[in-house]
Amino acid sequence: MKTLTLKLDDTVNEKFIWLLEHFSSDEIKILEQSDYVSDDEYLRSMAGMVESIQEARSESAEKGVTREQLDW
Predict the structure, then answer these.
(1) Are 10 and 18 within 8 A, CB to CB?
(2) Can you count the helices (H) and strands (E) in the chain?
(3) Which of 38, 36, 2, 6 lies closest to 19 in space, CA to CA?
(4) If DSSP codes are grouped into helix, strand and coil, which group holds residue 70?
């Protein structure tokens, strides 16, 4: 099974949801519906995120790690 994230224009949203509702719940399930917000808006909405970023900007480069040191 696959999970897709789509950004739908308001002009097609109602029609698209109508189409999805014609599939059985075994075939397609709508997991979540929400209004689109940009990454910037989303991050700013998280409590303390702006302050955390500002604090990190003021840290000296010596406290940082190289890309190779990151554990992806």
Answers:
(1) no
(2) 3, 0
(3) 6
(4) coil
The per-residue pLDDT for range 15-64, each reduced to its tens digit, is 999 999 999 999 999 888 888 888 888 888 889 998 998 888 888 888 88
| CB neighbour list of residue 43: distance below 8 Å, 6 or more residues apart | 49, 50, 53
Say how far apart CA 32 and CA 28 lie, in whole Å: 12
According to DSSP, residue 3 is labeled: -
Dist CA 70 CA 22 (whole Å): 46
Q: pLDDT at residue 72 above 80?
A: no
Strand ranges (DSSP E) for 1-72? none
Whether this prediction's pTM lies above 0.70 is answered by no
